[in-house]
Write a structure and sequence with these properties.
The chain has 417 residues and is an alpha/beta fold. The longest helix is centred in the C-terminal third of the chain and has 19 residues. It starts with a strand and ends with a helix.
């Protein structure tokens, strides 16, 4: 069940429409078996004379297919794994999405799994992506190809198990189930059932771009949740711990995608943008656990989900969730999230100018969320309105405005007469 009652009202309508639109294609995905073809990654001119006649869509990336080709073909059975995505969230959603034939009981044995790099260069698989493939038992077969054309004797290309905002399937879970089984075999015997909050405050990049993230996590750790950071926890242990927890709480984005390792567990998603994360909604369609979404962010400007700065806070939705759960809100995190609106706005203003310039920061695929974006903006006016209309100076250049000085002098005279 997907619980969206703690979203703002307009966003609830967007999420509901998306959940209805995202199709369930479980058992309906295609596996194309190609013989003697040349595959060429995006941005590279095919090393063959013939014109490419088909494309493989990889969500922002594509690969062309040409019959035949020059040079000797790579022998044996190969599975096309798509693009090795350098961002871990996209690795979970895009790179693993084509691996389901490896774990399908009826699938043929493959000699290798090939990927193109998303930066068109030879890439090393490292970090959690490497550990994922090791736990899945396919590490030895994975090959990342530099950016040029390759001819294959036999290569299979599977439909992705999830496509952003369009469809999802149970095949999405197959690689994660293999990783989970191995992780539980290694770590799962003596772990507690304490609920877990996936922590981002210890990661340097998140600490810079997610304001109040430490305080919002403290709300949960004060109520008995254990904080766990994906950046400092081995993947195998993290997977086992997610499966032992009674409940998982996570900021939206790649951290919340980790629920794929424990698909039956209840998940609470701390939302950080007005447009819903369509990948997360696709995960909800594929898994069987409950998901609750909470809008616990402020948005001083009109912007979409790609804006790389979040202000977490005690919104009306967050306070209602705390009250409904009977949770204790201690003085420390409440003060931390309530006492510095001017500082929050200044950081947001500076980041917005660098990141978006004079643009609004909305992407073309977020047009359906415009009403939700406006709603979040107007909901934040009570907190930041006096800075937006320059009633209160924020930056040094505000003091160059005659209007600001007029207000300051008028306020001083009124208070002293």
């Amino acid at each position: 069940m997907v619980n969206i009652q703690y979203m703002r009202q307009a966003k609830q309508a967007v999420a509901s429409a998306a959940l209805e639109r995202i199709e369930d294609l479980s058992g309906k995905l295609n596996l194309r078996r190609l013989h003697d073809v040349t595959l060429t990654p995006q941005g590279v001119i095919p090393d063959v004379e013939a014109t490419p006649h088909r494309l493989i869509d990889d969500c922002e990336y594509c690969t062309s297919i040409t019959e035949g080709g020059s040079g000797e073909a790579i022998p044996g059975r190969t599975l096309y794994g798509g693009y090795l995505r350098s961002a871990y969230g996209h690795f979970l959603m895009n790179t693993t999405a084509r691996l389901w034939p490896v774990f399908d009981e009826e699938a043929a044995e493959y000699d290798r799994i090939v990927f193109f790099s998303d930066n068109m260069r030879e890439a090393e698989i490292s970090g959690n992506a490497r550990e994922f493939l090791q736990l899945a038992g396919v590490w030895e077969k994975c090959v990342v190809l530099p950016g040029r054309s390759y001819r294959f004797e036999h290569i299979d290309a599977a439909d992705p198990s999830i496509m952003y905002g369009r469809y999802s399937s149970r095949e999405l879970l197959l690689p994660f189930e293999k990783v989970r089984a191995e992780a539980l075999r290694r770590f799962g015997e003596t772990l507690p059932d304490t609920p877990v909050v996936i922590s981002r405050s210890g990661w340097k990049d998140s600490a810079k771009t997610q304001i109040n993230i430490g305080a919002i996590e403290t709300v949960f750790t004060d109520n008995g949740y254990e904080a766990m950071s994906p950046e400092s926890t081995p993947l195998g242990y993290m997977v086992a711990r997610l499966n032992s927890a009674r409940e998982v709480v996570s900021p939206s984005g790649s951290a919340a995608h980790n629920i794929l390792f424990a698909p039956e567990k209840p998940l609470v998603v701390l939302e950080r943008s007005a447009p819903p994360n369509m990948y997360q909604l696709g995960i909800d369609k594929a898994r069987c656990g409950d998901t609750t979404y909470i809008d616990c962010y402020w948005q001083p400007f009109m912007m979409g989900s790609v804006f790389n700065l979040t202000i977490y806070g005690l919104t009306a939705q967050m306070r209602r969730f705390i009250a409904d759960r009977g949770m204790r809100l201690s003085e420390g995190p409440e003060k931390e999230m309530e006492r510095h609106p001017r500082r929050e706005f200044r950081r947001h203003l500076a980041h917005n100018r660098v990141y978006n310039g004079y643009g609004v920061g909305l992407m073309q695929w977020e047009d359906e969320s415009l009403q939700a974006v406006a709603e979040a903006y107007y909901d934040s006016l009570a907190r930041y309105g006096r800075y937006l209309n320059r009633m209160t100076p924020v930056a040094w250049y505000d003091y160059l405005s005659p209007r600001v000085w007029y207000r300051l002098v008028r306020g001083y005279l009124r208070s002293h007469t």
